[in-house]
Amino acid sequence: MYNAALFLHLLGVVLLVGAVTTSLLTTLRVQTAGSVAQLRSLTAVTKWIEAVIAPAMVLIIGCGIYLVSQRDDHGSVPWNAGWVVVSLVITLLLVVIGVTVEASDAKRLHTAIANATDEWPQADLRAVQLASRPVYVVFFGTSQVVALLFVMTNRPGFVVAIAACVIAAVASAIAATIRIRSVRRAALVSDIG
Ligand code: HEM
């Protein structure tokens, strides 16, 4: 039973990594799309991402909690071990950000595209397309999944587990800022031209 739960936990991780990578690439591509038709086809992908992330999170959190509760027979891990608490808190944080911030950004983009004509560029649509929050959020999510892979495989205490997540978050914010600035500069040049 324990090994089956570990398998399902890792299956959830595989699905999550696939969904997060697709989400990252889609968000970056949305920023540089050059027509309404391109934006429409890109946002069609987001429905698939949402459909994969929910079951992935259920598998990760559900099986993860089961694994900790059974772990005494497989080596001793207390519920208050740093890596357990940090992974649980960050995973739940990712779920909350996903259903609130990410969902509302996706809805805003869908609505802007639904209301758009085929003319290009359009100011309203351009503002949503070049919004910075979705980029920060998707970089943050990706960085935390990578940090949690480190935390899970090394099982550190609180200090190292939190440091890993903070370092990943700071790196993601820097990468997102660089990306947003370069895309906005290119958009300005292309819209003026
Ligand atoms: C995105 C979040 C997560 C990722 C990427 C992740 C990833 C992993 C990976 C790769 C392993 C195998 C590590 C190894 O055998 O060396 C693992 C094991 C484990 N995970 Fe997670 N995990 C996540 C969330 C959680 C959560 C929230 C919990 C529960 C609090 C949890 C509990 C466990 C336990 C107890 C094991 C050890 C199983 C064993 O080796 O016997 N995980 N996880």
Structure description:
By secondary structure, the chain is mainly α. Helix 2 (36-70) packs antiparallel against helix 3 and helix 3 packs parallel to helix 6 (158-192). It starts with a helix and ends with a helix. The chain contains six helices and no strands. The protein has one domain (2-192). Bound molecules: protoporphyrin IX containing FE (HEM).
What's the arrangement of secondary structure elements?
Layout: H1 2-32, H2 36-70, H3 82-114, H4 123-129, H5 133-154, H6 158-192
Helix pairs in contact: 1-2, 1-5, 2-3, 3-4, 3-5, 3-6, 5-6
Protoporphyrin IX containing FE binds at residues 6, 9, 13, 16, 60-61, 64-65, 67-68, 71, 74, 84, 87-88, 91, 145, 148-149, 152-153.
What letter string, H or E per element, gives the SSE order?
A: HHHHHH
Binned, the helix content reads over 70%
Structural class: mainly alpha
Structurally, how many domains make up the residues? 1
Mean pLDDT: 93
What is the first-to-last residue Cα distance?
Answer: 63 Å
Let me know the number of strands: 0
Give the names of the bound compounds: protoporphyrin IX containing FE
User: Strand-residue fraction?
Assistant: under 5%
Report Rg.
19 Å
Précis, in short:
This protein is mainly α.
Any key phrases for this structure?
193 residues, mainly alpha, 6 helices, 0% strand, elongated, binds protoporphyrin IX containing FE
